[in-house]
Amino acid sequence: RGGEGGLAGALPPGAAPIVSAPVARVPAPPAPPVEAARVIATYPHDIGAFTQGLFFSGGRLFESTGQHGESAIRELDLATGKVKRAVKLPAEYFGEGSAGWGKTIVSLTWKHGKGFRWDRDSFRKLGEFSYPGEGWGLTQDGASLILSDGSPDLRFLDPKSFAERRRIRVTWRGRPVRQLNELEYVRGEILANIWHSDLIARIDPETGVIKGVIDLRAVIASVAAQDSEAVLNGIAWDDRTGKLYVTGKRWPKLFEIALRGAAEEMESGGGAK
Known about the structure:
By secondary structure, this protein is mainly β. The protein is built from one helix and 22 strands. The strands form five sheets. An eight-stranded mixed sheet has the order 16-17-18-19-1-22-21-20.
């Protein structure tokens, strides 16, 4: 996929707008804070992994990857970056986001409108489900699966039937924001990679309003990726340790990060996902 970067207004220099045209001419609310991430620790990551989803389940780290013929669900060893085990998707599918639900893993595909359920411990396929439109990112809030599709909307799905329960429109200063990609639910907020940008949005799950933005320019610069598609894409929150991790497509590193300022409480641990 090709894309654009950044949010409009009061953001790091060079960020191109990906907000949609305003629906009505009304005064924009104040700009949410932009907070720089600081690196706490660095771990190896498989440079061949086209990362689409990243999450912890039961204290274990899982990843879904994309590309036709390469898409897979994998369990990773955090300390070494090695793949402990994996299951590949059929070659016709381009894998996308994934999330844990109980002792299962739910994964999406890009343009096929089809998702899969896997047994977390054996990687045995348990079933398939369908959804309209594209699949990009996936997370869960303990009650619903939350799906992004590249549009400004996030869909909340029933974890059993996968029927849509509701949706929110994500906005920045009153304007819809698109290119929302990998998702992670962290302490009452939805974190979302914005595709082809160096930013993660912190989204209110009730209103869709972006409450703040995480600036990862320094992290991305340290990777020095040569491939234009080796973009930031992968957010994982370990609710057992209270640690937050990020990586990207074909990145050689995975980073534990913390936030300065108002978001610093995210590094202090505790809280349920």
